[in-house]
């Protein structure tokens, strides 16, 4: 590849590169050809530079200096040349240092723009836009709404590129649906389609993700097929007795640099406390979103600079924050996703040939789930991600945002602009009209003389500080600020504070222990001081449903003694990663499954007459279980269907109906579900509504939808009817021969 001579000199003589990495050799030529690109490669592979090199090459040429020193025909238009979008402010902060180094070399400039960035830098940018703008989707939304048309034209008329970091984190999420619209809105000021470069370490369906992101434009996928070797080991505790074995492993590896991932922010605090009680001191850090920003940034800097230490986090270090080379990664709790497991494992051994991950599980369900994920990873498979076909709530938000941006707008213009976004193309004109009518009813917009304007009701709901809330589409729980003297050290969830925290109570935050001296409910402030003991708080968040592919793989692994389960070769590979405790327990579970008749290819029923219920082992995920549950409840009035895990359902029969006879009728009905759905597809939503399964959709804007679209959105978020029908067709409905497996594991 032929690069601008100044860029080539920088790479060879300043960066001291002797060659490009494999992904760079593939991706850079594709971007140089002007194609939208999805670049998929592991952490530490150089994929970020694979995006930056062609951007700087184009910028140097557009700036007027060609290979021979002559003036380029297309002069640089000025303003922003490349918009760099990332999902986290922390990622942007980290990326700033890398961009700064390159910009300094070539006398270009950059601006970091998010809620924590310096106001003086933003003001300077508006007067003299820099070549690079690093920004989050929410800040880009705010910029487009609030800045004048002349400011936006000045900033973006010369834009050529958009780099989207950690693209997988946007796919099929509210923020991703928002970003798709923002790209089109920004391109309107550029006057052309930007060349988009998306970066990701893990993508299950590259073509689908690229099609969504690039909205039907041409693209090329550059995929690092040969990934770094992953070395995974699995350690098991029969009883969920806390993090004892993990802490012992940390103590044995003193002097190593380790990242530990936990299930939640509360688990971070508990694990850090256990580690300190066991004698671990020194560089032990707790990092999660409730810890104050300045403290988190200090932790990132110190951990990156350290040669040894332990960083405990919930998920904040899954993404590509540069924290230097890490010896290995630990995961406390089940691996629930191959893509997430790869992302986490990839944080270790960035400069070596192997990434090491040690997984600590407690309990049988965690053991089976981790084995399912590892088996998928061994086969090079990632999970298919649940996707909402019509994100009505984010669509509604973008309607309001466009009206807010312009002051007034014609409905047909807004509909046409949103129809150009891949995420919204399936939404019909009738549905658009229904949303507008609902916005009028909720007093958020007015329709006059063929134009839409915002109403006073919108001003009341989203005035003042609430405007800041409007820019983000995800909903955050109300937080109480925790102050030590006058310094903010973090925040606690309002639900935790209002339901059990009183003045004098002790708690942990950021690995430190505090006592609440005073709680101001009106201001949302807790005055605290340091103490020697405290309990881990709880933060509420919406649970993430485990994907269908993972639960189905659990079935294959558990049914490995049957003819339709995992093969002997697959099981041998799994045994190699398990410690002796895990192997022993896995043998017991497989024997119980075999004795019960689980062969990896069925849907299994067991009538428990003692409990007066029928247990259905679906191994189909919550999305499939919800379909079966809704239809069963409607078909058998008086039944009560519950689910304690994504692999099963429990069905209590109507009064006076024998459990065993009821089980036979259930089995016959489940087999008919695909035919019922084919002949009467509308029956599912009616059944879900009749059984009381449809609940208010969590989110800022779903409440303003028409009732019918709200209910459809709920169904799209929590049901997978096509997957359910395919699952039932593939798996024969049968009875367990014995309840051994139910006696062994709480399914």
Write down the domain tally: 5
If you consult CATH, what is the topology of the largest domain? Rossmann fold
Strand content: 15-25%
- The CATH architecture category of the largest domain equals 3-Layer(aba) Sandwich
Instruction: Pick out the low-confidence regions.
Output: 65-75
User: What Rg, in angstroms, do the CA atoms define?
Assistant: 27 Å
Q: Please tally the helical runs, counting DSSP H or I stretches of 4 or more residues.
A: 29
CATH superfamily of the largest domain: P-loop containing nucleotide triphosphate hydrolases
* Mean of pLDDT: 91
**What separation lies between the terminal Cα atoms?**
56 Å
Major sheet attributes? 7 strands, parallel
Structural class: alpha/beta
- The gross shape turns out to be globular
Please characterize this protein's 3D structure.
There is one protein chain. This protein is of the alpha/beta class. It folds into 5 domains: 5-223, 3-Layer(aba) Sandwich (Rossmann fold), CATH 3.40.50; 229-362, Rossmann fold (3-Layer(aba) Sandwich); 392-471, Winged helix-like DNA-binding domain superfamily/Winged helix DNA-binding domain (Arc Repressor Mutant, subunit A), CATH 1.10.10.10; 479-530, no CATH class; 548-744, no CATH class. It contains 29 helices and 26 strands. The strands form 5 sheets. The protein has a 7-stranded parallel sheet, sandwiched between helices. It has a 6-stranded parallel sheet with strand order 8-13-12-9-11-10, with helices on both faces. β5 (161-164), α8 (174-190) and β6 form a beta-alpha-beta unit. The longest helix is centred in the C-terminal third of the chain and has 21 residues, at 659-679. The chain is globular. The N and C termini lie far apart (56 Å).
